[in-house]
Write a structure and sequence with these properties.
With 211 residues, the protein is an alpha+beta fold. It folds into two domains: 3-38, no CATH class; 48-87 and 108-203, no CATH class. Helices cover 17% and strands 35% of the residues. A hairpin with a 5-residue loop joins strand 4 (84-94) and strand 5. Helix 1 (3-17) packs antiparallel against helix 2. The protein starts with a helix and ends in an 8-residue tail after the last strand.
């Protein structure tokens, strides 16, 4: 029996003594709910949830940089979708033999976006950072990022239109002669569910098959 139910029963009895059974039951239920709350295992739990999923970090009219030698440069968002929210529901069994269950609801967030760095073609995109976290070292991505989640374009004049951007807008250009990356469903939990500052080390030179 829950605290609220027990409190209501006691309040009902006390209320009869004073000619106010309904008032006694109501007050008793509230007091019982406070003093003897239901077991936490019988209450659905919900994790934190973002209230704003919009992206506002793109800078229009920003000049396209030209890299000489090797240089770490900040990126500019040239395309993005709203932050993607994914709801996860887990049922937890409690009581003897799992006689009762409750739900634990959590949310994860990820992003689809394109970030431009400089004029291409370039020799290589040597490293990529999210804030101060190195997520690409020229050959391997961080373990929590699938290789398919980031596509690197070194600015060749034969680059095709990115499929993800084209699916969002059929009129999307190929952005040839621009070095940029496209992120697909990249998780944001390691960065407080916000868009990190994205930078890359660019190496000057003609593009080849090596990233």
């Amino acid at each position: 029996m829950s605290g609220r139910t027990l409190g209501s029963a006691i309040g009902l009895g006390v209320g009869f003594m004073f000619g106010q059974p309904q008032l006694g039951m109501s007050i008793g239920g509230m007091v019982g709910g406070v003093l003897m709350p239901d077991e936490i295992g019988l209450q659905d739990q919900q994790g934190p949830k973002l209230s704003n999923l919009k992206i506002t970090s793109s800078t229009y009219g920003k000049p396209i940089a030209k890299v000489y030698g090797s240089y770490r440069i900040g990126g500019n968002v040239i395309w993005s979708k709203d932050i993607k929210e994914t709801k996860h529901v887990e049922e937890v069994e409690v009581g003897k033999g799992g006689s009762e269950t409750y739900e634990v609801i959590t949310y994860t967030y990820s992003i689809d976006m394109a970030v431009a760095f400089c004029e291409g073609p370039v020799g290589a995109v040597r490293r990529i950072w999210f804030d101060s976290v190195l997520i690409f070292d020229g050959r391997y991505f961080a373990s929590w990022i699938p290789p398919s989640a980031i596509t690197i374009y070194k600015g060749n004049d034969t680059d095709d239109v990115n499929w993800l951007m084209q699916a969002d807008n059929p009129d999307t250009p190929a952005y040839r002669n621009v070095c940029y990356i496209v992120l697909h469903d990249v998780p944001l939990d390691k960065f407080g569910n916000r868009i990190p500052n994205i930078t890359a080390e660019i190496v000057e030179g003609e593009s080849d098959s090596v990233v």
